[in-house]
Specification:
- The structure holds 2 protein chains of 2 kinds.
- Helix content of chain A is about 70%, strand content about 0%.
- Chain A has 12 helices and 2 strands, in the order αααββααααααααα.
- Chain A has a two-stranded antiparallel sheet.
- Chain B is α+β, with helices and mostly antiparallel strands.
- Chain B contains 5 helices and 5 strands.
- Chain B is elongated, with a radius of gyration of 29 Å.
- Classes of the chains: A mainly alpha, B alpha+beta.
- The interface of A and B includes residues 36, 38 and 41 of A.
Chain lengths: ~325, ~180
């Protein structure tokens, strides 16, 4: 009984720590992106709130919480109110299967470096990222606004298409690791990260992942020059904040997934595992900000064509090639 | 998809160099000084004709230039200027009160263009935010300055004269007044 209680307490404490760290990361990622993007565009970025603008996320949160929460006339009220939570919730839930450390010992009890080591972790990731589409599509539809609707439709089409490429790009990783569990995939990279053996899978995953989280150059669901703000045009206050939060949490999660699948997760020399994990996530996030500064937005037809006519065939070829190589290596 | 000219390799090379260029230039910007001017600490000197707070100027003799002709008030697209007209004993027109509601003013400068006596002028001074919107209503004593603004020499009455001498229609090159009650040519 006491061991069961101790396990429960450890689990709850771990959940709380991970949640707080993830939310803080997302909040400061907004700041980091604004500062870095500004410097990449020869601007200064937010530097007023606190030293170097470090309190800017706090100011943003206070602003969002105290703003009026408007619901447009004719909106489908329950769906409109719930949709932002879907985006933020699924984004946070994906992180449950991402291993972030080698595990620790506390009073003789092992504390795994992951919240939940699902044996179908990868499928869980895909399931939740598919569910995230609902937040975008329903939010856009329930707003009773043509811009939101267009953004929602675009978002749904884009995310469903790129989900295929995302899944196919990871099949070689699963074949090489021999497991769907993210912990096992990290274990399989004990000698070398999969980036070295599967650079094509890495590129495919990064590109379709960027499309999945709707970042430039794939941000057509929110395309502010065409659609005001896309699916979250009509949202205000903390509901808009939830969409925003979800977006940046998925950015961290995508960084974590890339680290787990291709960069060896928390593995690395000299530094402790947790630090290595954050270094890899940070590097991926910086690359995403760099891409945002460098690339323009794709057109809708280009986006779809790129996925269906280029990424998916390439991913299928990649699976066959890696599968053949693996069979040849075993034989 | 519009096909670009050249064989596949050329197109591929052009696409890749285009991407790499854009990434490299953006990265180089990271090491450049930001060109941002930080406003409250650094205040750029605005051009003399920048349009912001409105003033009422005086002629070189120190008299008010405004003749209360209502042209500024009439041309104002947001109707933020109001005044009342009066005449002094010597026949000179003036505005006993003159009011500009800066909460409504859009700083378009049409009043300045309409003014026949260069009385109403816009200045580059734009920093006069207030928490209470009513404090933005400026009365004549707030608007009046003791200089001539952009043209210190101009004096309207030196060209026009203050009061009319003699009856209407009796001056040089002046037609007799039209009889409004008659439609005969």
């Amino acid at each position: 009984m006491s061991t069961w209680t101790a396990g429960l307490i450890i689990l709850i404490v771990k959940l709380a720590v991970v949640l707080v760290v993830l939310l803080l990361l997302a909040a400061y990622l907004v700041y980091a992106e604004r500062r870095l993007l500004a410097r990449l565009q020869i601007r200064l970025g937010p530097n007023r709130a606190g030293p170097w603008g470090l309190l800017q996320p706090l100011a943003d949160i206070i602003k969002l919480l105290t703003k009026e929460d408007t619901v447009p006339a004719g909106a489908d009220r329950p769906i409109f109110l719930l949709a932002p939570a879907v985006v933020a919730g699924t984004a946070l839930l994906i992180f449950a299967v991402v291993p972030f450390g080698a595990g620790w010992q506390w009073q003789g009890r092992p504390i795994p470096g992951v919240i939940s080591d699902l044996n179908v972790g990868l499928l869980y990731v895909f399931a939740l990222s598919s569910l995230g589409v609902y937040g975008v599509a329903l939010g856009g539809w329930a707003s009773n606004s043509k811009y939101s609707l267009l953004g929602g439709i675009r978002g749904a089409a884009q995310m469903i298409s790129y989900e295929l490429a995302l899944g196919l790009s990871l099949a070689p990783v699963v074949m090489a690791a021999g497991s769907f569990s993210l912990v096992d995939i990290v274990q399989a990279q004990a000698n070398y990260p999969f980036l070295l053996t599967q650079p094509l899978s890495f590129l495919l995953f990064l590109i379709s992942g960027m499309a999945e989280i709707k970042r430039i150059p794939f941000d057509i669901p929110e395309a502010e020059n065409e659609l005001v703000a896309g699916y979250h045009t009509e949202y205000s206050g903390m509901r808009f904040g939830l969409y925003f939060l979800g977006e940046y949490v998925t950015m961290v999660v995508l960084g974590g997934l890339v680290a787990v699948f291709f960069l060896g997760g928390w593995r690395g020399p000299w530094l402790p595992p947790l630090v290595w994990f954050f270094v890899k996530v940070g590097a991926m996030v910086l690359v995403m900000i760099w891409i945002r500064a460098a690339l323009p937005r794709l057109r809708y037809d280009q986006l779809m064509m790129f996925c269906w006519k280029f990424l998916i065939p390439l991913a299928l070829l990649n699976i066959m090639a890696v599968g053949g190589l693996l069979l040849w290596a075993r034989a | 998809m519009n096909q670009q000219r050249g064989n596949f390799l050329q197109v591929f090379f052009r696409a890749v160099t285009g991407l790499v260029d854009s990434f490299a230039i953006v990265l180089l910007h990271l090491f450049r000084r930001p060109i941002t001017e930080e406003y409250p600490e650094f205040k750029r000197v605005l051009p003399a004709r920048a349009r912001a707070r409105i003033i009422l100027t005086r002629d070189p003799e120190g008299e008010e230039r405004c003749v209360a002709c209502f042209l500024c008030s009439a041309v104002c697209p947001v109707s933020c200027i109001s005044m009342v007209a009066a005449e002094r004993e010597d026949g000179r027109r003036w505005a006993p009160w003159f009011r500009i509601n800066f909460a409504r003013c859009i700083y378009c400068g049409l009043c300045e263009e309409a003014c026949p006596t260069l009385a109403i002028q816009l200045t580059p001074h734009f920093e006069f935010c207030e928490y209470d919107i009513l404090t933005l209503v400026a009365e004549k004593e707030d608007l009046l300055v003791d200089h001539g603004g952009k043209n210190r020499e101009y004096n309207f009455y030196r060209h026009a004269g203050v009061a009319m001498v003699g009856a209407k229609g009796t001056h040089a090159s002046e037609a007799p007044p039209v009889d409004l009650k008659s439609n005969m040519p």
